[in-house]
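User: tokens in, sequence out, please.
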């Protein structure tokens, strides 16, 4: 199973991104937001955002959003980067130009956009650069163009840079909870919405369950009554990704820290390779949401990996 979403879904959902702060850098150096492979030299007046991956200029009501995708995403992104598609998003394309980088290429478009009765202006860059696909959206009030000009933005966007590795400490920093123990796993993807993907092994992209992986998400929900927990856990497990021929071998309540929780363990097969796997789901119930942890491991490796998964589970704490 791949830990990446399908490329098409990544493209059309890519602007819904968030993070925390940016790492310090010299004035002329690209600044990389925490947890992001992409960085750039921000224009004057822009500071690292505390709400999303990118930069913001509060005085100009302007924001720069950064999204990194795999390099193979670029051809489809370029194919769909039409005036018609952008119009469907509310952007009236006024300018379109090719952009050349020393190690890549891109397309920059810009135009007005009316949102909730407010006149805005948006510039969008797609680029295939340094072994990654970059999607950058600059959004501002129409009135801000007097100071944040197209020329200023063009110069900034030409400084787009890609780093090959993101330290786990940065990926963990964007999460609204703490993971105190990784047990040899590393973080593939994370977001301040609480979604995280972890895997055990050298690769980030996992196929045919060649590496164990773990998904962590936060699901908004009222705290269930004790007699409802098993039903809710089974319903959540029924939508588990990447497995078939599921046979639940354990479904029982347990305490997780100071919270009530529920564990389900099941034997199954990988959906694409038919390899025998074991899957586990833990739900940790809160007042307004519950934390869902789901992992899949080749059955032959289960006894070795299960204690590592439990160590991760037991180390998760609120910030």
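Assistant: Sequence out:
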């Amino acid at each position: 199973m791949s830990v990446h979403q399908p490329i098409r879904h990544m493209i059309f959902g890519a602007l819904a991104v968030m993070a925390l702060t940016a790492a310090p850098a010299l004035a002329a150096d690209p600044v990389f937001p925490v947890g992001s492979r992409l960085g750039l030299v921000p224009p004057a007046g822009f500071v690292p955002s505390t709400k999303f991956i990118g930069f913001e200029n509060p005085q100009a009501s302007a924001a720069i959003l950064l999204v990194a995708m795999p390099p193979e995403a670029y051809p489809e992104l370029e194919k769909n980067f039409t005036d018609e598609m952008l119009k469907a998003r509310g952007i009236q394309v006024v300018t379109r130009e090719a952009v050349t980088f020393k190690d890549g290429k891109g397309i920059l478009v810009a135009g007005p956009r009316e949102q909730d009765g407010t006149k805005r202006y948006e510039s969008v860059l797609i680029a295939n650069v340094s072994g990654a696909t970059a999607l950058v959206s600059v959004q501002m009030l129409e009135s801000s163009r007097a100071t944040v000009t197209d020329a200023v933005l063009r110069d900034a966007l030409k400084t787009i840079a890609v780093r090959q590795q993101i330290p786990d400490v940065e990926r963990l920093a964007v999460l609204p909870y703490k993971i105190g123990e990784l047990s040899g796993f590393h973080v593939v993807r994370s977001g301040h919405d609480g979604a995280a993907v972890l895997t055990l092994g050298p690769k980030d992209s996992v196929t045919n369950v060649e590496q164990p992986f773990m998904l962590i998400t936060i699901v908004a929900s009222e705290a269930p009554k004790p007699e409802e927990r098993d039903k809710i856990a089974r319903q959540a497990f029924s939508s588990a990704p990447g497995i078939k021929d599921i046979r639940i071998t354990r479904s029982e309540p347990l305490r997780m820290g100071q919270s009530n929780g529920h564990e389900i363990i099941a034997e199954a097969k990988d959906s694409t390779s038919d390899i025998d796997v074991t899957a586990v789901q833990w739900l940790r119930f809160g007042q307004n949401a519950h934390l869902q942890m789901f992992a899949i491991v080749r059955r032959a490796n289960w006894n070795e990996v299960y204690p590592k998964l439990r160590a991760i589970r037991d180390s998760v704490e609120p910030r």
